[in-house]
Design a protein that fits this description.
The protein is about 5% helix and about 50% strand. The protein has about 775 residues and is mainly β. It has 8 domains: about 90 residues, Sandwich (Immunoglobulin-like); about 80 residues, Immunoglobulin-like (Sandwich), CATH 2.60.40; about 80 residues, Immunoglobulin-like (Sandwich), CATH 2.60.40.10; about 90 residues, Immunoglobulins (Immunoglobulin-like, Sandwich), CATH 2.60.40.10; about 90 residues, Immunoglobulin-like (Sandwich), CATH 2.60.40.1930; about 90 residues, Immunoglobulins (Immunoglobulin-like, Sandwich), CATH 2.60.40; about 90 residues, Immunoglobulin-like (Sandwich); about 90 residues, Immunoglobulins (Immunoglobulin-like). The strands form 16 sheets. Strands 2, 3, 5, 6, 7, 8 and 9 form a 7-stranded mixed β-sheet that branches. Strands 26, 28, 29, 32, 33 and 34 form a 6-stranded mixed β-sheet that branches. Strands 36, 38, 39, 42, 43 and 44 form a 6-stranded mixed β-sheet that branches. The chain is flat.
Length: about 775
């Protein structure tokens, strides 16, 4: 028997696929008892013809990439010929062929603008494709035949296929370039920020564009200004035209990715405002002046203001507001003859500033002086007396001469220049001629503007002296006058002239003047000495200088009586903040600087109650029943009285706590109940100081011991009445709050348990005895 051994490479269920390098081995064996193998022969069919039979001498291969039939057999030394064995083989020396499919969005310059999907498809006309191998940028080979490239970059993709015989295709290479990222363009400006106001530039602006693309690189950067054409950017460009501009720009990379358009908004205003000044060159003091101008600017005025000053005085800056088509500011010309200087300035929205330069307004004065407070005093004067004529005069510039023009009773006219004191002008003189006078003021300023006052009148009359002062108080010669007395008198004038008084007062009979020119008919000489005689008199004057005087009066002051000192009181018991209960004896002390014998009583009150008289004086006490008040803080007040004054009230605070006995009630069984067996005695306990104070509840039967029950507020006790003789019993109960027991409550019960019926234990005992007796009798019978 001949065996065929096919070495690698081989493929197929029967190793039917081989290559021209596959070694075939034929091995023949004869039976153990046979004559042994003599020769082995084989032949090959290919392309329609057989080779001659060939003696097998060693391994052989099949040549030619086609279908082959292989036949072989062996002979032994005894001449036995093996049946021919026929097998089919296919020689495959050709590798598979791989085709690549690339899917993605194509851009420019062989770049893709999206993820790229690569599909590798291999075919083989022989034994079949075993696997497809690929690698990217030196990565490990993989068995996948479809994969995605998702990251930007340049990929070198190597790929090939291998059949089941190991025939490997030559490595193929493809370059994949992916750029999904748009170029990024940024701009820079010079100046970098607006050098004017409100976002405006007041100069040319240089724009520089910088584009960047880290993958395929920047191809071109484009820009356009406003509605102009798109231009290729080659370097920084300048915006010089005034106005608001929009500059749009974007870049395109070498892969064809087009950046989203960006834009810059630039406002340029290099032109100053134009100011046309229409302010009048003349003004008058005290009257309005309007600074008036028209201002031109292409982009609008942000602010206009006027700076003005008089002569060498300080400067004032004020905003100008629009009124129609003009910019105006109204001021009132101050009272000066100095030249008004001004500059009108304007700032446009961009911050461009311009001004008119310094200009002037000439000022003239046409304001008359102002006369106020024109007064003649007195308007009736005695002959030879002085009359004062006064007024206040102000002028916007300077007051010049001021005259008073007087018409006498004989109708003669006289003009007198008035004296000046600040803004006050006066003329003071005496008049002899009796009768009616009239006068007016004439004032002139340094600009020769003048004003006359209204006409005032006064009269010069014959005068009578005042009446003699009378009706003194204190009365003349009065004794025991208080040392705090006020002096008073009565006086009048025949002409009803206003009067003034001089006061003479002292302890001598020729008292000195202590006050003068007072208009009141009372006078306070301040505190006087005790037991002293004082002398006084009054001299009266009218407004014309006529006078009169009183008699000399006197009075004597009271003797000295020392002042009363109010008593003092203290509370010595209980102490402030002490806790008290029950009957409390409040104790204290009282004293008086004027002698303790002056103290008439000590009074005590609790909280807002009535004052009550305590027992004792210098050492006093007061019993207070605290059970009549609620528990808590209370205030004890005390005061003493000496017949004239009460002492200051003193007080302390104490805390009252009076314990209240608890309460108890037996709720079950009812009073008079008949009971038997085991019963539960129930009840309730409570305490108005709070149920939490309850500590225990106890009961007892008749005169027995007190026993603790279960519970406090709701309590119970189990009583086995079978342990008691039948009969009547009293059940007592009480509760305890830690300080006091409650009142004892009680009920009566009657115990009636049945007698004569043995208990279970007795019956069981008797049964046991009977059983023992019966057992003994049976034993004897036997």
């Amino acid at each position: 028997m001949t065996d065929k051994i096919i070495e690698e490479p081989k493929y197929g269920l029967d190793d039917e696929w081989v290559t021209s390098s596959t070694q075939f081995n034929l091995t023949a064996e004869d039976n153990i008892d046979g004559s042994g193998v003599n020769n082995t022969y084989y032949r090959v069919w290919c392309n329609g013809s057989w080779t001659a039979w060939m003696e097998y001498t060693g391994n052989f291969t099949l040549i030619g990439e086609c279908k082959h039939y292989l036949e072989y057999y062996s002979t032994d030394n005894a001449g036995n010929v093996e049946n021919v064995i026929n097998q089919t083989h296919y020689v495959d020396n050709s590798p598979p062929e791989t085709r690549i499919s690339i899917s993605g969005i194509k851009g420019s310059n062989k770049w893709y603008n999206s993820n790229v999907t690569i599909a590798l498809n291999a075919t083989d006309s022989g034994c079949g494709v075993a696997r497809i191998l690929y690698g990217t940028n030196g990565s490990q080979e993989d068995d996948f035949v479809m994969f995605n490239l998702t990251q930007d970059g340049i990929y070198t993709v190597n790929y090939c296929a291998e059949d089941y015989l190991g025939n490997e295709e030559g490595i193929k290479t493809v370059i994949i370039k992916i750029d999904k990222t748009k170029a990024s363009t940024i701009h820079s400006l010079s100046p970098s920020l607006p050098n004017g106001n409100n976002g405006w530039y007041v100069s040319n602006v240089t724009i520089t564009l910088n584009a960047n693309d880290n993958v395929s690189g920047v191809n071109v950067t484009k820009y356009k200004i406003d509605d102009g054409n798109w231009e290729n950017y080659s370097g920084a460009f300048i915006i010089s035209e005034e106005g608001e501009h929009t500059i749009k720009y974007y870049s395109i990379d070498n892969a064809g990715n087009e950046e989203d358009q960006k834009e810059i908004n630039i406002k340029i205003d290099k032109t100053k405002p134009i100011i046309h000044d229409y302010t009048l060159p003349q003004a008058t003091t005290g009257d309005p002046l309007i600074f008036n101008a028209s201002i031109e600017d292409a982009n609008g005025i942000n602010e206009a203001y006027v700076e003005y000053w008089y002569g060498n005085s300080g400067h004032t800056n004020e905003s100008i507001e629009t009124v129609g088509d003009y910019w105006q500011k109204e001021i009132t010309i101050i009272n000066t003859l100095e030249t008004l200087h001004y500059i009108i300035s304007a700032v446009d929205e961009a911050g461009n500033w311009n001004s008119t330069g310094e200009r002037i307004v000439n000022i003239t004065d046409n304001d008359n002086p102002e006369i106020t407070s024109f007064d003649v005093h007195p308007y009736i004067q005695a002959e030879g007396g002085y009359v004062n004529i006064s007024c206040t005069i102000i002028d916007n510039i300077y007051v010049g001469k001021v005259y008073v023009n007087i018409t006498y009773p004989d109708l003669s006219h006289h003009s007198y220049e008035m004296e000046k004191k600040g803004n006050e002008y006066y003329y003071n003189t005496s008049f002899i001629m009796t009768g009616n006078y009239s006068c007016f003021i004439c004032a002139m300023d340094t600009s020769n503007n003048s004003r006359n006052s209204s006409v005032a009148t006064f009269a010069i009359v014959a005068n009578s002296p005042p009446d003699m002062p009378t009706n003194p108080s204190p009365e003349d010669g009065q004794a025991t006058v208080a040392v705090t007395v006020d002096l008073s008198w009565v006086c009048s004038d025949p002409d009803n002239d206003p009067l003034t008084y001089d006061i003479y007062f002292g302890i001598s009979s020729s008292p000195p003047k202590v006050a003068s020119n007072i208009s009141s008919t009372t006078y306070n000489p301040s505190a006087l000495d005790y037991s002293t005689t004082y002398y006084w008199r009054i001299v009266v004057w009218d407004e014309h200088g006529a006078k009169n005087e009183s008699d000399l009066w006197h009075f004597t002051t009271e003797e000295y009586t020392p002042p009363n000192h109010p008593p003092t009181v203290t509370i010595t018991y209980p102490s402030d903040g002490a806790a008290v209960n029950g009957i409390v004896t409040i104790q204290g002390k009282a004293s008086d600087e004027d002698g303790n014998e002056t103290i008439q009583k000590v009074e005590v009150k609790i909280d807002n109650g009535e004052w009550e008289v305590a027992t004792g004086i210098t050492s006093w006490s007061y019993e207070w029943n605290t059970t009549r008040v609620e528990n808590g803080q209370h205030t004890i007040y005390a005061r003493a009285y000496d017949g004239k004054d009460y002492s200051s009230t003193v007080s302390i605070n104490v805390n009252v706590f009076n314990n209240h006995k608890p309460f108890i009630e037996i709720t079950e069984p009812a009073n008079g109940s008949i009971v038997k067996g085991s019963i539960i005695i129930k009840g309730m306990a409570w305490d108005e100081d709070g149920n939490e104070t309850l500590q225990k509840v106890e009961i007892r039967i008749d005169e027995g011991e007190w026993r603790n029950v279960t519970g406090t507020i709701n309590w119970n006790y189990t009583l086995d009445t079978k342990k008691l003789e039948n009969g009547k019993y009293t059940i007592y109960a009480r509760s305890y709050d830690g300080k006091d027991y409650s009142n004892i409550v009680s009920i009566s019960i009657e115990v009636k348990n049945k007698k004569g019926i043995p208990s279970f234990e007795v019956i069981a005992f008797l049964a046991a005895v009977l059983a023992a007796v019966w057992a003994r009798k049976r034993k004897k019978k036997k």
